[in-house]
Amino acid sequence: MPTHITARLAWHNDGWNGTVCRQPERNTYCTGAKSYPGDVIARERDLANEQRCAGCLGAAPPEQYVPPCSYSFNAFGPHETVARSNPPDFFYGGAEATEWSLAPATVCVWPYEAMYDDEVKAQGFLDNDRRRELTLKFFKPIEEDRGQNLVFYYANYSNPFSEEDAQCYVLIGVSRIQEIGKELFYENVSERIAERYAGGVVWARTVTSRYPEEGLRLPYHRYLEDPERLRDIAVFPEDPSLCKYGSKHLSDDDAIGLLEQLLAKVRFLREIGDDSENWGLAKSGCSELSRSSGRSAGCIPVCCGRCKQLVLNR
């Protein structure tokens, strides 16, 4: 059975299309306390620069600005762009920032749950070499199953639907996994930092999907000015635990449950005439997947070979 995953995204007002938001000052969610990754966007965002680059592809001339949302912003983007990570403050100058290419439809994920597993605390401190081993273990089955497995995109609590006393995760889309990137490391890592922090590894690896041919994205960006319709199309996971800790493994049953929730909104989007995706084909694929599964754990690997008839078709 393939190993599916979740991928946490920072909120993007233009559909995670690989560009700086067209009106970046209106996106207050990406800098929220529950954004991704952590508080990086809140600390590093250059709003004046983003306003000059509004609507531009990340790292495009003339500014060559890589926005701090680069881990997420190209989830459904059609072009290659660039991501960047600055080393954490506790490296104390012992490494330099690194940049890497993002293929179309690529995000950067990390299994934060493994970072605080009991195994890494066995000696009374956080063992960063053991942390690295656990991340390699996390990504191994995903890489082995690529082409069969799915990635489900979601936003943490910093999103337009959360309220102070009612915070919620929101599903954004799903696609078939095409490629898993290699480990990333900061530049010019000192010996001290390399020894203490697993070679200066970056807490991010790329996941490239087959969107749009084999994926769908809910069109939140189309309805930001219509709060009622925006909530109508939203999908809130019935099991919120699936959306914890950045990226997690999902079983077939987990994946089927999320697909069924997406199917309900696919039907609705088709009914209201939304044309951001080919919802007719998506509806047909979702329905067939649900019927064939009977909620059995074996359905997804069987069905995944029939890409053009299933949920991930546009």
Explain this structure.
This protein is of the alpha+beta class and 314 residues long. The radius of gyration is 19 Å and the shape is globular. The chain has one domain (4-246). The strands form 2 sheets. Strands 1, 4, 5, 6, 7, 8 and 9 form a 7-stranded mixed β-sheet that branches. A two-stranded antiparallel ribbon has the order 2-3. The protein is 27% helix and 15% strand. The protein has 9 helices and 9 strands.
Map the helices and strands:
Blueprint: E1 4-9, H1 40-44, H2 47-52, E2 81-85, E3 98-102, E4 106-109, H3 112-115, H4 128-144, E5 150-155, E6 170-180, H5 191-196, E7 205-209, E8 215-217, H6 227-233, E9 249-250, H7 252-271, H8 279-293, H9 299-303
Parallel strand pairs: 1-5
Antiparallel strand pairs: 1-9, 2-3, 4-7, 5-6, 6-7, 6-8
Helix pairs in contact: 7-8
